[in-house]
Every structure is written in C-alpha cells, then in structure tokens.
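Posting this for the archive.
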Amino acid sequence: MKSLEDLVNYLQSEKYIKSERVKSAFLNIDRKKFVPYVYKDEAYFDEPLPIGENQTISAPHMVAIMLELANIDRGMKILEIGSGSGYNACLMEYLAYPGKVFTIERHRSLYLIARGNIKSCPHSENIQIIEGDGSLGYSDEAPYDRIIVTCGAPDVPSPLLDQLKLNGLMIIPIGGSYIQELYLIKKTGNGIEKFDEGPVAFVPLRGKYGFSKDFY
C-alpha cells in the first residue's frame, strides 16, 4: 500500500474499520508522522514497526480493532497505557475531542519522541503525556471513560480498574509476555464483565502490576 488512502481502504474492506468516525480518524492522523524515518516507506503497510527500546507501533488493523471496540464518544476522558510514538493517542483524541487523552510511557526516549510527534495532531493541546509506570495508571485525573492498554498484561492491574468509571470500558491484552487474548472489560455496579476478542501479540507491560524485568 502506497498511500494513507490505500491503507484505509484496505482496513475498511477487511472490516477492521467499521465506522465512519474511525475511518475519519485514520484519514486525518497520518501514520507516517509517527514511524522512524528509516521506516517511512513502510508506514502504510499493515504491520507493526520498530520505534526503539524494543517497542513497536502496532499494526494498523490492530489499532482499528481496539478503536472500534472502545467506541469513543466526543467529550470522553481517556487513559492510555503505553504512549509509544504517540500515534494511538492522536487517533483517540481525534475521536474524543473536546475530551482529553492522558497517556503514560515508561521509556524516557519514547516519552520525548511522543511529545514531539503529537505536535502534528489537530488537538494536541488536549493530550497529556506522562512519564512513569503505566501499570499504576494516573489517579490525578481519574476516573476515565475509557482505558486503553497497548501492552500485554498478566492480569488486569487493580489501579486501572479502580480508575475506570462505572460503565466505562477497558481494552487490554491479557496473557503471557508474548501472546495474549484481547479483552473488552466493562465495569458495572455488580463487578466487571469480560469479553474475549481473540488472540493478539503485544510487547509486555512492565511495572508494579506488569511483568518483572527478568520474565521472558
């Protein structure tokens, strides 16, 4: 695929993109601006790409799946765990505007890259990038309408569940450090409802409620 339009048409034809709102977000947030220069020619391929620190920018189809599951409405407050290069945060802010996105990145170098990249977003003033342990969430701005976790966790971190609004949704990969199941979690007055959305492969969540550094 040679252009952003080619990529979006492919994602729509394969039914990864199902809504006009998500389609509009993909067309207005150019993935090429969020991949390292050496991979610019591959920006519109449907595959993950390295961004440094053994991390990746997710394949576009996976980003689309998570955004469709999240069902983000305007005015929502969103927490993202794993900023990466800032791509997903910009897509979510496009969908949530005039809501706000808070995104946490543990790697200093990626935190700085994401801060620079989001300047190209239409509503960058509504995105706040925090450097720290994403498994702890960000209680300063809780509760959140949506929490999106872009790394694989051994289980649902309890701080994230505490910071999710009643009837809010969380999208999180749960399982091993390489292969997980993607779960849609809804917080209700009676507890949580979990929906298994199929197998995925994400880099591991690190931190207090993630995998230990020596787990492989």
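The first strand starts at residue 49 and ends at 52. The beta strands are 49-52, 55-57, 77-81, 100-105, 127-131, 144-149, 164-175, 180-188, 191-200.
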